[in-house]
Amino acid sequence: MASADPAEWHEQISAALEVERFEVDLFRSQSLWVPTRARGVFGGQVISQALVSATNSVDPAFGLHSLHCYFLSSASASTPIVYFVERLRDGRSYLSRAVKALQNGRVIFMMMCSFQKPEPWQPSGQWGMPSGVPPPEECQLEEDRYAALLKHDGVHPKIQKIYREFINERLRSPIAIKVAVENDTAIGSMPRFMYWMQARDIPAYEAPFQKCILSYMSDLYLLGAASRTLGLERFSKGPNATSMTSTIDHSICFYDDTFDCGDWLLYVMASPRASSGRAIVYGQLYSRNGTLVAVTTQEGVVRADRRGPVEAKL
Q1: Which residues does the UniProt record annotate as the domain Acyl-CoA thioesterase-like N-terminal HotDog (predicted)?
Q2: N or C terminus: which one in the chain shows less Cβ crowding within 10 Å?
Q3: Same topology for domains 1-118 and 174-306, yes or no?
Q4: Was domain 174-306 assigned CATH 3.10.129.10?
Q5: SS (H, E, C) the chain
Q6: Which pLDDT band holds residue 185 (cuts at 50, 70, 90)?
């Protein structure tokens, strides 16, 4: 049973991802979490719950290798989300599933995912892990970083309130986050932002659930890399202030079945293009030993606090 306090229920990643099966291919969320100052339920939770639902319909001999999803509308935390899994194809090497998330009679999210029988005898290669990144033991937890900012002189009371909200959220999150590299900008290249992420206090889960946890992680801070690349500020006013960010679509490709989200993963993010109120971000997740575990892509609405020309009235 869910805790009376959704925030407490969300502190355990296993609880945050849990769904109830009430028909063969129908599942229902057990808890939903809205981040501080967000418009709706955290997208990573919706992705991971949809993936848990899809994985329950798949032969364990097949492992998830990719997912692609669209966020059609913000989800409310006041009503459970129902996940409908459609079995599109069961082949000898690949299986395909579609998941529709419904709330209050409307489709709010759609995901396609594909599962493969592993072929470890095939050749492999990868982009190397960025060099010079400090290990997680030398980096500061986000809640500690905000606590240090609170001690600075002259912090406006409204900003102090925001910092305290983020500290509380980070302390209660099932995912620990540390800034690894604030802004890695080489001459002539795009800025990169790097974070260490770890699921707090989890047992040694098997690969299918590890991928569900990573899917939850993959939505943390990702679209923020686009705002930061554009130089938009979160807590200010004017043309360089962020007025809105919201995910449109999200994808993950997995290339490893041995990673552990209970250990630190390095999330490297870069946003190569933004225009017309949209931006795209690419991400790579590396295990501590340098294995490129997964590659992510996300496009979202990224708007500054600027108004377009007024349309003439007929």
Answers
A1: 33-116
A2: C
A3: yes
A4: yes
A5: CCCCCHHHHHCCHHHHHCEEEEECCEEEECCCCCCCCCCCCCHHHHHHHHHHHHHCCCCCCCEEEEEEEEECCCCCCCCCCEEEEEEEEECCCEEEEEEEEEECCEEEEEEEEEEECCCCCCCCCCCCCCCCCCCHHHCCEHHHHHHHHHCCCCCCHHHHHHHHHHHHHHHHCCEEEEEEEEEECCCCCCCEEEEEEEECCCCCCCHHHHHHHHHHHCCCCCCHHHHHHCCCECCCCCCCEEEEEEEEEEEEEECCCCCCCCCCEEEEEEEEEEECCEEEEEEEEEECCCCEEEEEEEEEEEEECCCCCCCCCC
A6: low
Q: Write out pLDDT tens, residues 140-184.
A: 999 999 999 988 888 888 888 988 999 999 999 999 999 999 877
Digit-coded pLDDT (tens) for 239-274: 776 767 889 999 999 999 999 999 999 999 999 999
Catalytic positions, please?
Answer: 219, 247, 298
CATH number of 1-118: 3.10.129.10
